[in-house]
UniProtKB/TrEMBL annotation:
NCBIfam families: PRK12295.1-5. This is Histidine--tRNA ligase. Residues 12-349 form the Aminoacyl-transfer RNA synthetases class-II family profile domain. The lineage of its organism: Bacteria, Pseudomonadati, Pseudomonadota, Alphaproteobacteria, Rhodobacterales. The keyword Glycosyltransferase applies. GO terms for molecular function: glycosyltransferase activity; histidine-tRNA ligase activity. GO terms for cellular component: cytoplasm. InterPro entries: aa-tRNA-synth_II (IPR006195), aa-tRNA-synth_II/BPL/LPL (IPR045864), HisRS-like_core (IPR041715), HisRS/HisZ (IPR004516). GO terms for biological process: histidyl-tRNA aminoacylation. L-histidine binds at D65, F66, T67, R92, Q106, E110, R297, Y302, Y303. It holds the Pfam family tRNA-synt_His.
Length: 357
C-alpha cells in the first residue's frame, strides 16, 4: 500500500529531476485568494474548489492547482526566461465521482520563455514523457489554439465569437451555442416570448439585477436574434476540425486540408508543424504520437495552445497521471499589461506509485 511518505519521496525525486533541467523550486500558499480564480473562471470554479472566508483577507480557496499562483509570482517578480518546479497538495471537489481523491500531491514544471514556444512545448512534453516512460502510459496531445483560431475566423458577430470562445472548455454548451447560432435548433419558447415582448414586464423584480441591467440583457438578446445564422459550410468545417483524431502526421495533413477553406487556422496549424519538428528533435516518435483536436477541452480553462496528457491503458478508472499545456493568455490576464509565452505541466506521484504496485 502506498503511504503518504512514499508519495512525498517520489515527489521529491521528480522535483529534483526538474531542478536538474534548470528549474528553480518555488512554494505557494495553500490558501489562495478566491477573487483571482473567480475573476478568471466565474462561479464555475466553486463547483471544483473548497471555499472559505477570512475576516481580514476575504474569500479564500484551498489551492485547486499551482499554475495560477506561479504565474502571478512570475509576472510580479520573475526574470526572463524562467523555469520553475514545485510540489504539494491540491484540493478538488469530486462530488461527481466520490471514489476519486479530493486531496493529492502534484509535482509541476513551468517554462516562461518567449524565444521559441515550439521548443518550450517540446521540452516540457519530452521531460514528462521521460518521467512516466517506465509506466507504459498512453500519450494524448491536442492544440486548443487551433479551435480558438477557427472560432475567431467565423463570419459572425464579435459577441457570438466571444461566447463560443468562452465556452470552448464546456463542450456541451459550445455545441448548443453553435447549433443555435446556425439556426439548427428552435428558439426556446420563453426566449421567443421575451424577444417578442410577450413576457410580463411589469412583474416585480426578483434577484440582484437592476431593471437597467435586465433591459441591457434583453437588448443584447434581441441584437443576437437579428444576426444571420452561421453558414452550414462553416459549421461543417468546425465539425470536421473537431473530428480530427489521428497520429500527428496524418492529423497535420487533415488540418492543412481544412485550412484551405478555413484559412484562419493556418498559423496555428503551422505552429503544430513546428512543434512536431522540435518534438522529433528531442527524440519523441512523432510518427506514432496521437493528436486529437478536441483533447483538453474539459481541463482547466487557462490552456490556449498545446495540451497533453498521459493515461494508463490498463486503468481507465484512473485520471490522467500527467497533464499540461500552453497558457499564454493567462500571463496576459495576470500580467498587468505584460505577457510572456508560457507552458507547463503536472504529475501525480501517488498515481505513479499505484501503477507500479
Amino acid at each position: 500500500m502506498t503511504t503518504r511518505a512514499d508519495t512525498l519521496a517520489r515527489a521529491a525525486t521528480l522535483r529534483a529531476t526538474f531542478e536538474a533541467a534548470g528549474a528553480v523550486p518555488v512554494e505557494t500558499p495553500i490558501l489562495q485568494p478566491a477573487e483571482t480564480l473567480l475573476d478568471l473562471y466565474g462561479e464555475d470554479i466553486r463547483a471544483r474548489a473548497y471555499v472559505t472566508s477570512d475576516a481580514l483577507r476575504g474569500e479564500q480557496m484551498l489551492r485547486p492547482d499551482f499554475t495560477v499562483p506561479v504565474v502571478e509570482m512570475h509576472m510580479a517578480h520573475g526574470a526572463e526566461p524562467a523555469r520553475y518546479t514545485y510540489s504539494g497538495e491540491v484540493f478538488r471537489r469530486q462530488e461527481h465521482d466520490p471514489d476519486r481523491a479530493n486531496e493529492y500531491i502534484q509535482v509541476g514544471y513551468e517554462v516562461f520563455d518567449r524565444a521559441n514556444p515550439a521548443a518550450a512545448d517540446a521540452e516540457v512534453f519530452a521531460l514528462f514523457a521521460e518521467a512516466v516512460a517506465p509506466l507504459g502510459l498512453r500519450a494524448a496531445t491536442g492544440d486548443i489554439g487551433i479551435l480558438m483560431a477557427a472560432v475567431r475566423g467565423l463570419q459572425t458577430s464579435e459577441a457570438r465569437r466571444a461566447a463560443l470562445l468562452r465556452h470552448i472548455w464546456r463542450p456541451r454548451r459550445f455545441r448548443a451555442l453553435l447549433d443555435r447560432y446556425a439556426g439548427r435548433v428552435p428558439v426556446p419558447t420563453r426566449r421567443a416570448k421575451l424577444l417578442d415582448g410577450a413576457l410580463d414586464c411589469d412583474a416585480p423584480l426578483i434577484g440582484k439585477r437592476s431593471q437597467t441591467e435586465i433591459d441591457a440583457r434583453i437588448a443584447l438578446l434581441r441584437a443576437d436574434a437579428a444576426e444571420p445564422p452561421l453558414s452550414g459550410a462553416e459549421v461543417d468545417l468546425l465539425d470536421a476540425l473537431l473530428d480530427v483524431r489521428e497520429t500527428t502526421p496524418y492529423a497535420l495533413a487533415q488540418l492543412r486540408d481544412i485550412a484551405v477553406d478555413l484559412p484562419a487556422i493556418g498559423p496555428a496549424v503551422d505552429g503544430l508543424a513546428a512543434r512536431a519538428e522540435t518534438l522529433a528533435a528531442r527524440g519523441v516518435n512523432v510518427e506514432t504520437l496521437p493528436f486529437e483536436a478536441s483533447f483538453g477541452r474539459t481541463s482547466m480553462e487557462y490552456y490556449d495552445g498545446f495540451v497533453f496528457g498521459f493515461f494508463s491503458p490498463q486503468r481507465a478508472d484512473l485520471p490522467a497521471v500527467a497533464t499540461g499545456g500552453r497558457y499564454d493568455a493567462l500571463t496576459r490576464r495576470l500580467g498587468n499589461g505584460a505577457e510572456i509565452p508560457a507552458v507547463g505541466g503536472v504529475l501525480r506521484p501517488g498515481l505513479m506509485l499505484e501503477l507500479e504496485a
